[in-house]
Amino acid sequence: MSTHDDLDHSLDLRVLPSVEWRTAAREHRDRLDRLVGPYLERRMAGTTHPVIDFLFTY
């Protein structure tokens, strides 16, 4: 069972400087593109993959 003490880390909020936020957002988008990009490209081309398609549609 969670206690309030277990959740304290989720309450630490801070405002990031614009440069830091934009860098983090770009890095996140790049990681996401590496992971999801090949699936989306195959999907747009109409090519299927039984395992990968299952993982994205399940």
What's a concise summary of this model?
By secondary structure, this protein is an all-alpha fold. It is about 70% helix and about 0% strand.
What does this structure look like?
There is one protein chain. This protein has 58 residues and is mainly α. It has one domain. It has helices spanning 4-7, 18-45, 50-57. It is elongated.
Per-chain topology:
Blueprint: H1 4-7, H2 18-45, H3 50-57
Tell me the distance between the termini: 29 Å
Net shape: elongated
Helix content: 55-70%
Query: Strand content of the residues, in percent?
Result: under 5%
Low-confidence stretches: none
Number of helices: 3
Largest sheet: none
Q: Strand pairing plus helix content: what structural class?
A: mainly alpha
Number of domains: 1
Strand runs, count: 0
Mean pLDDT: 86
H-E order: HHH
Radius of gyration, in angstroms, nearest whole number: 18 Å
